[in-house]
Design a protein that fits this description.
Length: about 325
């Protein structure tokens, strides 16, 4: 039999009303929290027991609608699924409750998600297909073809990955992991004819997949295990497979990385920078840092670059797994 435990927790609750407040503030609330409660229970108790004006979104309470997404101590969580005990074990007995994006806060935990929906719409999140006006049979999809979607259709559009993405914070043009996962969902659908259109959108400099920093935060916070970074990597490959790659630093970086592993079985970091940015730009931009790295042995000259002991196995692995010719 499971024993219900109780702990005293201090919450720093983000408060802001865009109609009356110039700046946000944090209200300290102390509560007895049981091991049965989730974050949504705490939001409810703050509203019902402390301050009726406290505002947040909630609906299904079953991890389906995605409405109750917030951040606790900077970690994106779906309030109706996240157990308080897990957060206390991770962060201790003082927790800060904040909206997904402070700069987009409208009232307390409620944010304006306009940027999320604009970017979602921009990648054409629907099937593009030319079908007969009066088809004689359904367009069947095999189990294997459905499997190729890699659960990308499980996205509930909660925005957790979008507002946890560090690139979104500093680059307003960046489309973001949720929209990229949605783009993959339709690009991987055998019934869709819009893959090249979508690839041109998500291949754009500054806005597209090449500006992803691969921190894996999107995969970490996703409550449905959609794993957006996996789909972003698939989109990288699709860009090459469909001949949509643009010759720029980002695509040369990807090609240079593959060449280095194929040649040495190891990453030649100095050559990767030279290949991606060009010799002269590299010297002008990174010359001082490169010289310092060279002095402490962090940069290896091309003729001294070591080879992997298992280079033949690495080459065989690359040959068997490569689907793209650069």
């Amino acid at each position: 039999m499971t024993t219900i435990t109780t702990q005293t927790i201090t919450f720093n609750v983000f408060r802001f009303n865009s109609e009356t407040d110039y700046l946000p503030y944090y209200k300290k609330v102390e509560m007895e929290v049981t091991s049965e409660e989730v974050v949504l229970d705490i939001l409810n108790r703050i509203k019902w027991e402390v301050d009726g004006s406290f505002s947040y979104r909630r609906s299904c309470r079953h991890g389906i609608c995605g409405a109750c997404a917030i951040k606790v101590n900077g970690k994106g969580v779906l309030a109706c699924k996240e157990r308080m005990n897990d957060l206390i074990e991770l962060f201790g007995t003082e927790l800060t409750l904040e909206p997904l994006s402070i700069k987009r806060a409208v009232k307390d935990m409620i944010i304006d998600k306009e940027d999320f929906w604009v970017k979602h719409e921009a990648i054409e999140p629907y099937l593009i297909s030319h079908i007969e006006e009066h088809p004689e049979m359904e367009c069947a999809v095999t189990p294997a073809q459905a499997e190729a979607l890699l659960d990308s259709d499980y996205c509930i559009q909660c925005g957790l990955c979008h507002y946890s993405c560090p690139v979104i914070e500093i680059n307003d043009d960046f489309i973001g992991p949720a929209a990229f996962a949605k783009a993959y969902r339709f690009n991987a659908d055998v019934r869709d004819d819009g893959i090249d259109e979508r690839l041109d959108i998500i291949n754009a400099p500054s806005a597209g997949v090449w500006d992803c920093v691969k921190c894996f935060e999107c995969a970490e916070v996703c409550p449905k295990e959609v794993n957006p970074i996996e789909k972003i990597t698939k989109l990288h490959n699709q860009i090459f497979e469909h001949g949509r790659a643009i010759n720029n630093v980002a695509t040369r970086h990807a090609v240079g990385f593959a060449h280095s592993i194929k040649k040495h079985g190891l990453l030649d970091e100095a050559e990767l920078v030279r290949y991606s940015e060009g010799t002269l730009p590299m010297l002008m931009k990174h010359g001082k840092v490169g010289f310092k790295m060279f002095k402490v042995g962090k940069v290896v000259m091309p003729w001294n670059m070591p080879k992997s002991d298992k280079l033949d196995e690495v080459k065989a692995l690359i040959k068997s797994s490569s689907t793209v010719k650069f």
